């Protein structure tokens, strides 16, 4: 096949996929703003829907457009094409995600982490795939459990009735409600979100955003802020207790290192009894209770899978047991 013919077929394929998606969301009045946005910005539509594999699009509702304008004083388009494109890429999941995928098993207790099309290093500096327990070339979102106390059938029924919701965790510690509708188009599935997703920021800015200022202060004390933010792929175990209190600089460095694991490690796919080696050469053992509660050694995860541009943060109810023996 000649190259011009191939390019023409590719263009026609993208056009057909775009039209299928726009037609599908146009059936939902609460998505009319996004349908108009794509019709008026065909380049964005082509970029958003330019792959052949199945996707799930998290479609911002009309209220997302209104809320953004009310908060910022301007439209989402005013951010400029580069930033808007990155946001749309973050709204595009590289998987087919339906209500049934959120019911039963670990997903019902611990949620799911899903990769997106966002690969720009400013927002996705997570290092090589092999360093993480979620194999995704793009940045991820964390979708909280939607089916606690529900069977797969009851969740699917709630979806058909329009009453099934969950939460999508994104950058800067932000989250938004996802209305599970299992909308169908030629390229996959779409769900509805109430806000535009927030692009990820670095590790320490994210800690500040979720109320862990004391931890970023501790990093500043030992001059490790830049180092933590420059890690290409890291898991930060962030205790809610002040680990710097009564600790000298040398000991504080060790304490911080004992709460650091290389590679983004997400709790959604961890196994009970699994171990990780910290930067302080200590062993961190995972415990998962029957209800899905996750522990690292003797510290409980009170907020897991907070997205940072270079990894993930798990907030703990206290600091890890510092009497752990270093591995030889």
From TrEMBL:
Residues 18-320 form the FAS1 domain. Keywords: Signal. Residues 1-18 form the signal peptide. Pfam families: Fasciclin (PF02469). The keyword Transferase does not apply. The keyword Metal-binding does not apply. InterPro entries: Adhesion/Biosynth-related, FAS1_dom_sf, FAS1_domain. It comes from the Eukaryota. This is FAS1 domain-containing protein. It comes from Glutinoglossum americanum.
